[in-house]
Design brief:
Length: 196
């Protein structure tokens, strides 16, 4: 059921009450929110990966990565989710490569969108929520006549989620959050969760 949710507490310096990554569990589903970077890069990675490991002490059949409040900025956002994307011999997860639901909103912008695109590039990933704010970076590589490579960063348009559903911020990160509920319904239809 969905009555087993909890917040993972991770030790670390959190200054000025700014947003830091949040880990939760909804039944058999793991949940990670990736906000913009407000702590040191390694601390951010440690918080996310320790949360993932703590949540997975009881095996999870799927994951939610929430980027709805990610308004951009540089940081190790994609790197921090590495355990969710690696094969059995490369990760500590009890069920490697479980399906991932990526949550988006109109506040998701720039590097938040870029992180979403990278995560959605793996197998068994789908996006839910609202059309993003736009302006995510895309890097195009060109080979020059002297055989050197040059990268040009351009900024692309919005991301339209696979399943569009309006956010209701009154229920953010709760079992009544309509985007989380829809994502969980999809996850529970996937093979790893059907067998639970």
């Amino acid at each position: 059921g969905q009555d087993k949710s909890f917040i993972v507490q991770v030790e670390g310096q959190i200054e000025n009450n700014l947003m830091v990554p949040v880990g939760k569990r909804f039944g058999d589903i793991g949940y990670i929110e990736l906000p913009p970077l407000k702590v040191e890069e390694q601390e951010y990675i440690d918080i996310v990966q320790q949360s993932i490991q703590e949540i997975d002490q009881t095996p999870t059949c799927g994951w939610i990565v929430d980027l709805r409040r990610h308004a951009g900025g540089e940081g190790p956002f994609f790197e921090s989710t590495r355990p969710l994307r690696k094969s059995e011999d490369e990760t500590f997860l009890k069920k490697p490569q479980a399906p991932i639901a990526v949550l988006l909103s109109s506040l998701t912008y720039s590097m938040g969108e870029f992180t979403a695109i990278l995560i959605l590039g793996v197998d068994k990933a789908q996006s839910f929520g609202e059309i993003t704010g736009g302006n995510h970076p895309t890097i195009s590589l060109f080979r020059l006549s002297n055989k050197a490579k040059m990268g040009i960063t351009t900024f692309s348009e919005i991301i339209v989620p696979d399943v569009e559903i309006k956010n209701d911020w009154r229920y953010f990160q709760t079992e009544d959050d309509p985007v989380i509920k829809t994502a969980m319904e999809w996850l529970m239809q996937q093979e790893t969760c059907k067998n639970e």
